[in-house]
Amino acid sequence: MSNTHTMPKTYMGKQLEHAVRACGAFCHSKRSNKFNDAVDTEWKVYSDSYKQDMVDLARDLGRFLTANYPHIRNSYEIGQSEIQAFMNKKASTCAPATLTTKISKLWKLEKCCIRISCSKNQEKSHWNTSDITMPKSKKEIKYKKDKPIPIEHSRTILSDMRGNRSETSNAATLSTYLGMRARETTCLKVENVHFTKGEFGLGWIQIVRGPEGGRPRKIPILDKDDQDMLKSIVVGKNPEDYVVAKPDGTKMEPDTVEAALREALKERHGNTYLYNSCHGLRKTFAQWYYNICREKYDKKQTIAKTNAVLGHGYRRGPQGIKSYVKNMH
Fold first, then answer.
1. Residue 247's domain spans which residues?
2. 308 to 213, 290, 293, 303, 313: CA distances (angstroms)
3. Could you tell me which of 24, 52, 297, 329 has the fewest CB atoms within 10 Å of its CB?
4. Residue 114 shares a structural domain with residue 189
5. What does the alpha-carbon distance between residue 226 and residue 228 come to, in Å, rounded to a whole number?
6. Residue pLDDT tens, the chain, 329 long
7. Are residues 66 and 193 in the same domain?
């Protein structure tokens, strides 16, 4: 039997995320630290909202490294070429200002990693973010990749996708009616889909463990039509089956889901939703859920509940849902 240890798929993402969380300095004064030469501020993460942005970046970089550079198992093994490749990939979906922000946060992320690394490894880290060639954004500015997709358009797209043999339409259904991320849809099993009880008495979905370190949570089914749609995609499946599976029953890749959705959107709506994905479906769900909750709860409670159901953490406040919920009445 081989003694070779296989690293978990999420190892790099978790390592980078840990570095960010370990460098939280929420009780420190950024202003006073800034004017105190004796205090090293380069590694400190002062606010919760900035921490969440950094955690998202850490997970994203971790996924990229795992997929493209599986031999890299420690942050100090990351080099300029890997960071450049990551930025080049982001150029296809990020606006120029977003690319600039990512470079800045990558610099901070390396400082966090150096801070929590043992002393013998600290000098090995050379991401050289200051030497990265800023790639030219390939994103067409007039289109937003995460533009909310109206529910009536989503239903048409779902009908189009169901004409294919692939179960990618099941994933799009989960994103439309439950606001699930593409990665989450491909992890969901039938045993975690329930059609009784829940917040609105129509059932709920259990996210046992969000992919790449995401939060476990329960997502309620919002109305009877949603319940009927969800029943239709699990009928005939066994409890241990994936809701979204390949023909052989194994788990489908998130990229397959995203590609199928973009193709369906392109065919039906041209460039209206260029670069869009399951994220655009999540945004419509978020506003829908927010509106329902706002009828029962005050604004603060509604914001917390919406953050939680999206998997952002209920303490993030308005910052956590501002890009999802445009009408925060």
1. 151-321
2. 15, 11, 12, 9, 5
3. 329
4. no
5. 5
6. 333 334 444 578 899 999 999 998 777 776 566 666 667 778 888 887 788 888 989 999 999 999 999 999 999 999 999 999 999 999 988 888 889 999 999 999 999 999 988 666 777 889 999 899 999 887 765 555 668 999 999 999 999 999 888 999 999 999 999 999 998 999 999 999 999 999 999 999 999 864 444 568 999 999 999 999 999 999 999 999 999 999 999 999 888 999 999 999 999 999 888 878 888 999 999 999 999 999 999 999 999 999 999 988 767 789 889 889 999 98
7. no
Residue given tokens 């790449």 in the structure block: 212
- C-alpha separations of 255 from 160, 252, 260 in Å: 19, 9, 9
Same domain, 54 and 199: no
Do 309 and 161 share a structural domain? yes
Distance, C-alpha 298 to centroid of its chain = 27
* Whole-number Å distance between alpha carbons of 30 and 151: 43
pTM, 2 dp = 0.64
Provide the β-strand partners of residue 193.
205
Residues 207 and 125 in one domain: no
